[in-house]
From TrEMBL:
Domain of life: Bacteria
Keyword match Acyltransferase: no
Source organism of the structure: Variovorax rhizosphaerae
SUPFAM superfamilies the record matches: P-loop containing nucleoside triphosphate hydrolases
Entry-linked InterPro entries: AAA+_ATPase (IPR003593), ABC_transporter-like_ATP-bd (IPR003439), ABC_transporter-like_CS (IPR017871), P-loop_NTPase (IPR027417)
PANTHER family: ABC-TYPE DIPEPTIDE/OLIGOPEPTIDE TRANSPORT SYSTEM, ATPASE COMPONENT (PTHR43230), OLIGOPEPTIDE ABC TRANSPORTER, ATP-BINDING PROTEIN (PTHR43230:SF1)
Name used for this protein in its record: ABC transporter ATP-binding protein
Length: 266
């Protein structure tokens, strides 16, 4: 089975400015694959500034890699051309953002987003079909169209809104979700429900998920494999349980000790 997603020696540099026009590597020679043996959750773990968001944007095709290659199924992202190919890719690889309030226009009713996605990505030809597709997706995240219809983003809690964002992504029947710190702005009490939902999507819908986080505990509980990044570089990668139970790299050990330290609690 070939991988769903394969990154090889991916680099992204940003100009640093300054007198000598030096550039900094936000992502430096990163290689990994997702979904080589069926749907899986891959956690990308690292503290702020380690290149996680840059990596997510390259996978979503919104930032170009400066070097290396990213393949989704049989397509090299650099070769995607034209609206048709672009839309096809966007349907299959859906983003989930950190702050659900930023993902939605505050002046637009939430059902509009759902209906638009149903028309663009699920072939819904009329209102009835768009409503049916939206309701089905909302039910997968524990909501229903009746609870969302006519509502504006600020009328929902952060946790509810993030579930609406996930439902919107699911309407497209994606193969891959790229979730960039999806629970860091959500109340602690709702975090577990959302990460458990990811597990359910993997098991029941066959969706692979790239789960970007700095939270070792949720990564440990839901992911199959982990990639640990520091300053743009992968320092350690492997099976989630094996890696996090027995980290080898000093940085991974440091991350784990920080979680276990009495200062920060379990
Ligand atoms: N658009 C940009 N222009 C210049 N530097 C950037 C840009 N985006 C990210 N960076 C730099 O790249 C590094 C990695 O950032 P980022 O990918 O956001 O990391 P993370 O998501 O892990 O916090 C940081 O040093 C950041 O300042
Ligand atoms: Mg980030």
């Amino acid at each position: 089975m070939t991988s769903l997603l394969e990154l090889r020696n991916v680099v992204r540099t940003y100009a640093k400015g300054g007198l000598f026009g030096r550039s900094a590597r936000a992502v430096d020679d990163v290689s990994f694959s997702v979904g080589g043996s069926g749907p899986e959750i891959l956690a990308i773990i690292g503290e702020s500034g380690s290149g996680k968001t840059t990596l997510a944007r390259m996978i979503l095709g919104t930032v170009r890699a400066s070097g290396g290659s990213i393949r989704f199924k049989d397509m090299d992202l650099a070769d995607i051309k034209g609206r048709g190919q672009r839309m096809d890719f966007m349907r299959q690889v859906q983003p989930i953002f950190q702050n659900p309030f930023e993902a939605f226009n505050p002046l637009k009713r939430l059902d509009r987003y759902l209906f638009m996605t149903a028309r663009h990505f699920a072939g819904a030809r009329d209102d009835t079909a768009a409503e049916a597709a939206s309701d089905a997706a909302l039910r997968k995240v524990g909501l229903s169209l009746a609870e969302v219809k006519g509502r504006f983003p600020h009328e929902m809690s952060g946790g509810q809104l993030q579930r609406v964002a996930i439902a919107r992504a699911l309407i497209a029947s994606p193969l891959l979700l790229v979730a960039d710190e999806p629970v860091s702005m959500v109340d602690a009490s709702l975090r577990t429900a959302i990460v458990n939902l990811f597990r359910k999507l993997r098991d029941e819908m066959g969706v692979s998920i790239i789960y970007i986080t700095h939270d070792l505990a949720t990564a440990y509980s839901i992911s199959d494999r982990v990639v640990i990044m520091r300053r743009g570089v992968v320092v350690e990668a492997g099976d989630a349980r094996a890696t996090l139970d027995n980290p080898q790299h000093p940085y991974s050990i440091e991350l784990k000790n920080a979680v276990l330290s009495p200062d920060t609690g379990p």
